[in-house]
Design a protein that fits this description.
three-stranded mixed sheet, Rossmann fold, single chain, alpha/beta
Length: about 200
Amino acid sequence: MVAVIDYDAGNIRSVVNALKYLGADHIITNDRDKILNADRVILPGVGAFGDAMGRLRSSGLDETIAETVSKGTPFLGVCLGLQLLFEESEESPGVRGLALLKGRILRIPDGEYTKIPHMGWNSLTLINDGRLFEGTGKEPYVYFVHSYYLKAADESIVTAVTDYNTKIHASVEKDNLFGCQFHPEKSSSAGLKMLENFLKV
């Protein structure tokens, strides 16, 4: 059973549709016991870092997520869900993230690609043998929608990078904890393969 955490942060339907396509048994929930008893957990999300952390804290989901990760359940953060796994974001100064991984979320700087948010398809450069990327090809093409990006403190956890005015840490993996800044559920066959790989972890 895959638990997709519902905390009013959007993007749930597209994740659920991808899981249905893959034939995965799943549930949309904010119930602590259902999340803790799930075989795998996905934290989707779009929107502002501070607002999302406020909702997680007010509902106690921040503690549920920490407990889920500590017990070794495979856990995937998608887009904003990845950003929330880290310590802080320039988008919401003074707001502490889940801090399950070390690093900061920074605003994409102005540069050659002037359109912010970064919205569209980019190829990934794969590093550090990430398990999500088995069978996806050397440079999978994936879909992004974001104005802020991850700079991980420990680059050994980074499994994919892309360039958009700066080097973006696009995916991370540490033990049972995974994160994608891009949307695998919107990234065609390569993204579905990544989700399929997560279901097999």
